């Protein structure tokens, strides 16, 4: 598979793994809306070839997002249409607001989770997992209904994972989404008072093993470039070389 096809594949998988509340397909551009929660679920993904006038289409996109009272955010990969869309947007006064590294790991030599670890796997969203997730991520009640709708709308096979310590206290949680032979890692978070103690690594390894036992050959994730602790952890696990650097551009 070429690098182009891999990038497109991962983009498609990640959109399926975190479904937006609403989606519009506009001449090869995918417009996603989730009432403002999470940039990736409220962004324009110019993933497929286009034929319409670009300037006209950008204006159309801006009008659509303005009606929803949302900022216009373009999520660009190295395979966008047109290929110079980043320059076109910057000339239209869009600002770069973030860089995201997309990485893949082969699951051939994933280490086993120590038997002492107490980990729970759930194939459906539970109130217990959701409460822990919201607490660790400091998500206020106004956004919780939106997030719960997004999570319950996931169609591929999914596991909601919690890691507990010896005192039966949940110290980390995360999501693994399996589609075809790829396991995606999402919303990996550790309780603030238990960070840098190896729980994040243990949680991720558990999800990777779950994915492998359910048919996955590869894992993928997206991490913000300036999140150095996360990047160091993923590098330790073998996620070393990004297949793509995603750019986010935001308009007024």
Walk me through what this model shows.
- The protein is an alpha+beta fold and 252 residues long.
- It is built from seven helices and eleven strands.
- The strands form two sheets. Strands 4-11-5-10-9-8-7-6 form an eight-stranded mixed beta sheet, sandwiched between helices.
- The longest helix is centred in the N-terminal third of the chain and has 15 residues, at 3-17.
- The chain is globular, with a radius of gyration of 19 Å.
- The mean pLDDT is 88.
Key terms:
252 residues, alpha+beta, 8-stranded mixed β-sheet, 3-stranded antiparallel β-sheet, 11 strands
Give helix % range: 25-40%
Q: Could you report the average pLDDT, rounded to the nearest whole number?
A: 88
Category by helix and strand content = alpha+beta
Number of helical elements: 7
What's the total count of β strands? 11
**N-to-C series of helices and strands:** HEEEHEHEEHHEEEHEHE
Radius of gyration: 19 Å
Looking at how many chains there are and whether they match, the oligomeric state comes to single chain
Largest sheet report: 8 strands, mixed
Side by side, the strands of the main sheet go 4-11-5-10-9-8-7-6
Overall geometry comes to: globular
First-residue to last-residue Cα separation: 38 Å
Ranges where pLDDT stays below 50 over 5 or more residues in a row are: none
Report the β-strand fraction as a percent range: 25-35%
């Amino acid at each position: 598979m070429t690098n182009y096809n891999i990038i497109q594949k991962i983009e498609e998988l990640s959109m399926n793994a975190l479904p937006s509340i609403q989606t519009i397909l506009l001449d090869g551009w995918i417009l996603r809306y989730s009432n403002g929660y999470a940039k990736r679920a409220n962004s324009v993904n110019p993933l497929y070839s286009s034929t319409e006038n670009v300037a006209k289409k950008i204006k159309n996109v801006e009008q659509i997002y303005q009606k929803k009272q949302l900022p216009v955010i373009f999520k660009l990969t190295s395979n966008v249409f047109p290929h110079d869309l980043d320059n076109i947007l910057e000339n239209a006064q869009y600002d770069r607001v973030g860089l995201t590294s997309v990485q893949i790991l082969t699951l051939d030599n994933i280490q086993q989770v120590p038997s002492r670890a107490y980990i729970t796997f759930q194939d459906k969203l539970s109130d217990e997992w959701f409460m822990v997730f919201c607490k660790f991520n400091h998500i206020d009640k106004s956004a919780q209904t939106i997030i719960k709708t997004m999570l319950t709308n996931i169609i591929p096979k999914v596991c909601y994972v919690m890691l507990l310590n010896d005192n039966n206290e949940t110290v980390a949680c995360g999501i693994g989404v399996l589609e075809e032979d790829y396991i995606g890692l999402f919303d990996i978070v550790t309780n603030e008072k238990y960070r840098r103690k190896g729980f994040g690594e243990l949680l991720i390894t558990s999800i990777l093993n779950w994915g492998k036992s359910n048919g996955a050959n590869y894992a993928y994730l997206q991490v913000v470039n300036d999140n150095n602790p996360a990047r160091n952890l993923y590098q330790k696990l073998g996620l070393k070389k990004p297949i793509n650097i995603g750019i986010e551009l935001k308009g007024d």
